[in-house]
Design brief:
By secondary structure, the chain is an alpha/beta fold. The chain is built from 14 helices and 22 strands. Helix 2 runs parallel beside helix 4, helix 6 packs parallel to helix 8 and helix 11 packs parallel to helix 12. The protein is globular, with a radius of gyration of 24 Å.
């Protein structure tokens, strides 16, 4: 099961090529500034430069915004008379306020006007690539033969990334030092199945040139009317029942209230446990990425457990204006931050991504929709603005609408998430439901490309099979293999 199982109830322009990379910069009205200082020029007014993204793919464009700021701090947008200056031939000017990336590399960009020089901004140009991923839930494999089939299917369809679920309810489908083996593997919580699904997948997928991202449910604690039994390691809910979320009456979550009972993000001990679990996973296994699901609260009436209430009171004493919603969103962000810090320490090249709510905020006044930011206290766009994630995978599982912008329109939602990722210099991969028909699947792949997504992830491998989409992808939009786009921005200061 994935977050989107709940969400399902809520029922680009063409760019002219500026020329070959080896043409002189002067051909495009751009100066090579490889030896120039970035603070040339003196004026009573100063210039401020912003780039629409600090990371751009080879062949794509980035927009420049320039303001003239007077001594009083008043800003006025400038669009004429500007001279664009770059430090290398990596980019070239297509028109006055747009740069087109020509080749991978780094360049500094600034502008001059009447002797005044703006700040210098770093632009990173990455090679072309497209992530083509698929989610594989823990219910869809029980032995090595199942993994062989999954890798074979992914290879045949020219997919290049598998998001393998290895933690569902504070349990493990790998050798964990902190949590017991999943009961799904043997029928008994904590019983060693005699094989390691994550390690087996890593061996098979890497041999086929396919990345493996370990998909984990972040806050779900348990999914059964019966409490966890005894095991080694002991299940964290059995060891720490006070970690559970409580409703607005202070009553701990009971089975059946939500898809899972949730641990409370507002409890510092919960956050520390999750970070330790994922650090251990990343340290032991050569994963290409770590993928966070259910990285949110269970709903708008949670979590009023004692630890959260105490923490809120402590913080509110220092900041009386702190709202409950701000407090809860920050708790989720702190969890992501702790995971990032701990995982980076042991596996610095692992990509950190998250499956996030399909609607971040309802900017379009659609009726009867749930929002990640407001209803589940998940500030997904804030995650990437703060550099906590490398990529968003919004679960935009709805169809594209006949009239653009209608309720739950796939194209509108994809554009919203991609725009946020680009502003932060990060990636967004469109989450696509495999339950759509073949024409809609192909349409959504093209929409994702047109909107600037750096790839897509399908939910899930079982539906791709049953709907016949694997062959359609291979013979259609994925007819040519692709590399996963590089995450070179991770090296930026």
């Amino acid at each position: 099961m994935q977050d989107a199982d709940i969400m399902a109830s809520d029922a680009a322009s063409t760019i002219t090529d500026a020329g070959a990379p080896d043409r002189a910069l002067s051909d495009f009205g751009v100066h090579d500034d490889s030896g120039a200082s970035s603070d040339l020029g003196v004026s009573s007014n100063r210039l401020e430069l912003e780039l629409s993204s600090s990371v751009v793919a080879e062949g794509d464009s980035v927009a420049l915004s320039v303001w003239q700021v007077d001594a009083q701090g008043d800003r006025q947008r400038v669009s004429a008379g500007l001279e664009i200056i770059v430090s290398t031939a990596t980019v070239a000017a297509r028109d006055l306020l747009t740069l087109r990336a020509l080749a991978p590399g780094r360049t500094r960009v600034r502008v001059e006007l009447d002797g005044a020089s703006s700040n210098s901004e770093l632009l990173l140009v990455t090679p072309v690539g497209e992530l083509r991923g698929v989610w594989v839930s823990r219910w869809l494999y029980s032995n090595a033969a199942d993994l062989d089939r999954i890798v074979s299917d992914a290879t045949d369809a020219n997919l290049n990334a598998i998001f393998l679920q290895v933690r569902g309810e504070a349990d493990a489908f790998y050798d964990s030092a902190y949590e017991p083996w999943s009961r799904i593997l043997t029928g008994t919580l904590g019983q060693d199945p005699g094989w390691d699904p994550l390690e087996a997948m890593l061996q098979r997928a890497h041999a086929a040139g396919i990345q493996v991202h370990a998909w984990i449910n972040t806050f779900p604690a348990w999914q059964s009317a019966n409490a966890p039994g005894s095991s080694t390691p002991e299940h964290p809910l059995r060891a720490n029942p006070s970690w559970l979320c409580a409703n607005d009456n202070g009553v701990p979550m009971a089975p059946g209230e939500s898809s899972y009972q949730f641990f409370s993000p507002g409890n510092p001990a919960v956050r520390a446990h999750i970070a330790s679990v994922l650090e251990d996973l990343a340290d032991k296994y050569e994963i290409d990425g770590l993928h966070l699901d259910y990285v949110r609260y269970p709903g708008p009436t949670y979590c009023h457990d004692a630890a959260s209430e105490a923490e809120f009171a402590r913080l509110r004493s220092a900041d009386p204006n702190l709202s409950w919603g701000e407090f809860q969103r920050e708790n989720v962000a702190l969890t992501v931050e702790a995971v990032r810090t701990r995982v980076r320490a042991v596996r610095p090249n692992a990509v950190l991504s998250a499956a996030t709510w399909g609607i971040y905020r309802n900017k379009w006044n659609w009726s009867s929709v749930s929002k990640g930011y407001d209803d589940y206290f998940q500030d997904a766009h804030g995650f990437i603005e703060r550099g906590l994630l490398d990529a968003l995978v919004p679960m935009t599982y709805w169809a594209s609408t006949a009239v653009p912008g209608e309720r739950l329109d796939f194209a509108t939602l994809t554009e919203d998430h991609v725009s946020a990722a680009r502003r932060a210099g990060r990636y967004a991969f469109a989450g696509i439901s495999a339950e759509h028909d073949g024409a809609e699947i192909s349409r959504q792949v093209q929409i994702a490309r047109d909107k600037g997504a750096r790839g897509m992830v399908f939910f899930e491998i079982g539906e791709l099979r049953s709907q016949g989409h694997l062959a359609r992808l291979r013979d259609g939009p994925f007819s040519t293999p692709a590399e996963v786009p590089p995450f070179a921005f991770r090296a930026l200061p």
